[in-house]
Design a protein that fits this description.
The chain is α+β, with helices and mostly antiparallel strands. It has one domain. It is globular.
Length: about 210
């Protein structure tokens, strides 16, 4: 239903946080990379292929030094996507004050913060002949290791796109495109609600098991 978008993805980037370790200073980084449902790095081909309406999935993970020192992610403080396109610029806040927007973004940090996953459905402005799409955020580590600035470059080449009902068909009218985007946003809201309900059931079950053990 959607035309594939071919893009070029930049290398992962990370900023440094320093923590005192005796007389030495340890430097930690948080890596940001596109990942699959098993939180593995996407292949080069998958990184270059984007379908409008599907979430961009980013994994955030402390480096090996941090992991060996028992340091994990305490909280993803913020994350914002930014881009410029012909005639303007766009910004989409995915995470603010440690919480996702609950509509087009979903943030989770399983395994005690050893990894955090952020999924975002980028709005149509990010596909209007955009240049670079950059993700900017801050991550706080545990054990007083501090807050790290993290940056992720997604789209590193200019591209254009169009919506089609089927491959080879005519381009959709603007009204049809807007209706489609509205439907995708509604579906994302529904998905986020189901995730929250499932998380609530898991938490309640864990609490019940703890009471039974007492």
């Amino acid at each position: 239903m959607f035309r594939l978008l071919l893009i070029l993805l930049a290398l992962d980037t990370a900023a440094y946080s320093a923590a005192e370790d005796g007389n030495a200073t340890r430097k930690y980084t948080v890596r940001a990379y596109e990942c699959d449902q098993q939180n593995k790095h996407l292949s080069s081909e998958d990184r270059q292929r984007k379908i409008q309406g599907q979430p961009v999935r980013i994994c955030l993970q402390p480096d090996e030094n941090a992991q060996s020192d028992g340091i994990s992610i305490d909280r993803v403080e913020s994350w914002t996507w930014k881009t410029t396109f012909k005639g303007g610029e766009a910004k989409q806040t995915a995470v603010k004050e440690g919480k996702d927007d609950g509509i087009l973004s979903y943030l989770s940090c399983p395994a005690g913060g050893k990894i955090c996953i952020l999924e975002t459905v980028l709005t149509v402005n990010f596909y209007q002949n955009a240049g670079s799409v950059i993700g900017l955020g801050q991550v706080t580590l545990t054990s007083g290791a501090g807050t790290i600035d993290v940056q992720k470059d997604l789209f590193q080449t200019e591209f254009s796109f169009k919506f089609q009902q089927n491959p080879g068909s005519d381009e959709m009218y603007p009204e049809e495109t807007q209706a489609l985007l509205k439907l995708m946003a509604e579906k994302q809201i529904e998905t986020n609600k189901l995730r929250e309900q499932e998380a609530g059931r898991v938490a309640a079950a864990s609490k019940g098991n703890a009471v039974d053990e007492l």
